[in-house]
Amino acid sequence: MSETGPFHYIGKPLGRKEDQRLVSGRGRYLDDIVVPGALHACFVRSPHAHARILGISVDTARAIPGVAGVFTGQDLEKWTNRLRLAPPIEGLHPTEIATLPTDKVRFHGDPVAVVVACDRYVAEDAAELVEIDYEPLQPIVSLDSALAPGAMLVDESLPTNLVSHQKFAAGNVDGRRRQAHAVVEASFSQHRQTHVPIETRGCAAVWDPGRAHLTFHAGNQVPHPLRSMLAMRLGIAETQVTVISPDVGGGFGQKIALYREELTVAALARHLRQPVRWREDRAENLMAASHARENLCRTRASVARDGRILGLELEIVEDFGAYCFYPANYMSRVVAMILTGPYRIEDYAFEMKVALTNKCGNGPMRAPMAITSWVMDGTLDAVARELDLDPLDVRRVNMLRASDFPYRMATGEVLEDITPAETLESAVKAVDYDAFRRRQRDLRGEGRYIGLGICTVVESTTYGSAFYKSAGIAGSGHEAAWVRVEPSGVVNASVGLGGTGQGYETALSQTVAEGLGVDPSQVSILTGNTDVAPYGMGSRGARGGTAGGGALYLCALKAREQVLQIAAHRLDLNSAQELRLLDGQVERQIDGRWRATGLSLGDIAKIAYLDPTRLPEGTSPGLDFSLTYDPPPMTYSNSTHACEVEVDVRTGKLSIIRYVVSEDCGTVINPIVVRGQQQGAIAMGLSGSLLEEVLYDENGQNLSATLADYLVATACELPNFEILHHHTPNRRTPAGIKGMAEGGVMGAIGAVTNAVNDALAPFGVVADRQPLSPQYLWSLLQNAPTASRQEGKERSERHE
Amino acid sequence: MISLTVNGQTRETVAEPRRLLCDVLREDFNLTGTHVGCEHGVCGACTVLIDDKPARACLTYAVQMEGHEITTIEAVGEAQLSPLQRALHEEHGLQCGFCTPGIVMTFEAFLRDVPDPTEEEVRDVLSGNLCRCTGYQNIVAAVLKAAATMREARL
Description:
The complex is a heterodimer. By secondary structure, chain A is α+β, with helices and mostly antiparallel strands. Chain A contains 22 helices and 30 strands. In chain A, the strands form eight sheets. Chain A has a seven-stranded mixed sheet with strand order 3-7-1-14-11-12-13. Chain A has a five-stranded mixed sheet with strand order 9-17-16-15-10. Chain A has a four-stranded mixed sheet with strand order 20-28-29-30. Chain B is built from five helices and five strands, in the order ββαβββαααα. Chain B has a five-stranded mixed sheet, sandwiched between helices. The longest helix of chain B has 18 residues. Chain B is globular, with a radius of gyration of 15 Å. At the A-B interface, helix 1 and helix 19 of A face helix 2, helix 3, helix 4 and helix 5 of B.
């Protein structure tokens, strides 16, 4: 399956086909779709974090002119099915969610009722008039209070708030601890964040009573799984639902689940026999769409004198929020499974706890396993600090080398075709590590504190169905594609992905072009319509290139084979062995040279469609191909991030001076698109580490419901990124594609925090939580051990 | 009934005083290139030009706009892409594209006033537009490239 030879179309830096419409404002996002006669929905949301619903009075709201109806959880119970999640995973409690709550609200922003009106203004007016009688309950707003004995239950069907709990051990970590030269403990606290796609959620539902058919417009990453879920929750057949996902203004993992608001809108369109649409406002998006992260990791490393890790233990605790739209073990599980990443660690144990709290429910956000590399490389930095070793040496002594692969990690996952030692060395060389240390020493003498953080990432990119099975995650990792050469010789192709800005129309056309042998300009990629696309698993993780691009490439190869068989027949050859298709022309190898045959793909297509009696015996008319492709259990890419920062110790202000990443993501389909993904991922990691934070107060009130409170990095906070490339193809995937779109987040979180700790080393303080705000860094310095604070202060004063 | 001048054309519509300019542009005039991202003036996706100056259409009532000239993304590069739009394409300065019209409007105006900006100036102005996909690096490169192209064209 592997191809190491040169490609004709894969790897070319082609400008994106989708740009023309997007730069001129002619994209077609959800809210740009005109649905004649559509009513507008507005949700009434809970002002309490936790409260029993005693009664809902809708009469005043319903009396407003223009209001078509006001509906509550009781209504939706009649028209929809609940979401029950009960995958057979040991230690995971089954959960069930009503479409809208009927008994109690579980977080500030929980949707309780919905108003449908002639326009959004009227709907919002009426929503304010819905009166709900609440009995406030004690809110659970921290992991500690969630897990305290006798804690108030967030979900009353569970025995405790601990919704998921698993343990794992390989080797003998207890024995390793006893043998160790030192046992080093470290902790890593990642705060709550949210995705902030610039286009918020929304949908438009059209029920056709004549056909008994729902057309559901929604910006979504996984159109077919969304369709399955809609049909199931509405109690209708999948044949009765079409999901159309237009241009999507960013997803980052937020546009995967079927949300309660979307289901409500679909059910109302069916009930009212009139189209209904909804566009979330930004406050709703920040409070009530989906949150992410908020987990605490503690590690305990048993180490030899030279920093070699003999045994590693991880405890991970995650605050999952109030509702489970995904199995609660899912995100933490991936962190725990791949934690050891680029390092040789045979003895490894973990314990995972996931708790429910009165906050918006968690979901995967670009790099659901984001914290992994910070925890691993941060642990190595802790080892270096404790044993007074150079952090780079500690990495080198533990790093897996080329000869170690394929390497079976302690968790059983197999790493192969990755190059962490190589990316580490090239990143270190690029930043000139030794020169940096000298500069750092000199500047400290001037009272300036710079730091260098290194973080090596092994990124799980494409999950095959075997991984889902072994990890106990419901679902599959396969993808589906079709390729159709039309009668004129141009090509339509489709795949089950749902793009949210990844440039699929361009990059995926290159994979089809490569497999078939036509110029990418002749290939149109059709996605985002479940009646057109084959049933695929959609876009999540970093699977688009490997699973989607791979499926299309294989399908196009299948098409080429038939095209060349027809060509051989037309040319009176016994086999197609000496033929190839390039730029849509059939060529024949004669005496080692490729020569034109005068036959084009258009000629073959014409025969296949319009003159099939001239086809070779047994060949079906037309040129229509499809297949499904299941990637290996897991593919991995790797990278090393090196971040140089300066901390102003008088104010705690953090500045990023330089950012270098050395990345190996195998075969690159389109270098422009890939670089964009790498930059975007790093940006999201830095933005989250430096600025973003979902804040709840002690009563569970969300304090970060505007973009003036929830800060996303602007152009002034982010540096330019220098990217170094390695290209080690994966030998098991079509064209050697691996994927990459999340590793940047993982590496950035680790590199910038490690850099801060390197800068602050003279003060004897360690930043073990984020965001790395000036307030936090300043408070760390205020509480620094006296001697080192004095030393640092004197240094900084000396030069003021 | 109000009368607005949009992209050089006079257009009439019925709008309550509380209706936002962005809603009137999008819903009444079908000018859907003006995107609505936050409705509180932070993200910049809805940026249009009012009398040639960038402004947030989500913070402006349509009725306030009588007697003013409004320019939206639909008027930029109508026949062929503007140098800025072309540079955004060439430098891969957009991914999902939702924030892009606001960025185009911001810098069409800025580059008229500041034809030879520094990277720092571009970043400063760009900080009024949020982009969640790109990390801004390529947008900055595109603006600088467009500035150079436009300067050459003026020579």
